[in-house]
# Entry
Amino acid sequence: MGERPPLSIAGGDAARLRARPPERTLAWLRRELGAAEVVGVEALLGGSSSAMHRVELAYDDGAVTSVVLRRYVAGHVLAESPSPIEREVRALALLVGSPIPMPALLAVDEHGTMTDVAAVAMSWLDGQPVWEPRARRGWIRQVVDQMAAIHDVAVPATVSLAPIAPYRQKSWSLPRWVTDPTVWERALEVFHGPVPEVDVGFVHRDFHPGNLLWRRGVLTGIVDWQAAGVGPAAIDPAHCRLNLFFSDAALADDLRVDWERATGCTFHPWADIVSIIGTLDGLRDRPPGATVRRTLETALGEAVAELGLG
# Structure
């Protein structure tokens, strides 16, 4: 079993991620969806800014259905403009009617007026993440196909989607385990530089194995659209590659090759740099094992060299 990319979660917020939502919030959800009662609540694995729960709702006709409740317990992220909840709502609205397997937006309390914090409810999608696929070619083919479908989504002039941006870090100091500081310093310059205007369009931005749901070898859902926006298409395969670097570097390289072959696009090394440097806090505070360190430094060095900065 490979490693997982480190997340940065503040202590106080971490304690709230798995706590049961307050009754006020569950009552809001029940009313919004016309349910008779809440019959089950299960904490799910969420990110660093939101608490995720599977909520089972019972209806007067005897039907029971599951929905996903996302609550932004880390309030500071909502100060961003646009906030993650705005991004997710706009992305899901844009994708209505598309063939992309994504959740349906069911209810929104953007400012936490009726709930304890800003919240959004979505339909439950069947499936589980697969980090280490057995059928590697089939996994890559479906992943690349879905990336291409996302990037083919046209954004009408009437729809306002914000551009993506590199993930800010608490500190820009390098991890102690770095063996070639010069490469990392060059990468930092790229990270803080302009976003390239290459193959720009709609992107998921947080596309990685943990946000892909599978059932019996079929990709059944793509979740967590809270970072979606407009940017270079390469950011999606790059973010997926970043996560694969921690478990299967060969699969990460195959993904790049197949994505270029399937889309006709040229992978921009900026995307690898931005993805790796975007986890700098975690790489410094929770260092990965030696194999992953070498993989990350190799990928970063190759990206810097491709840009002619090595």
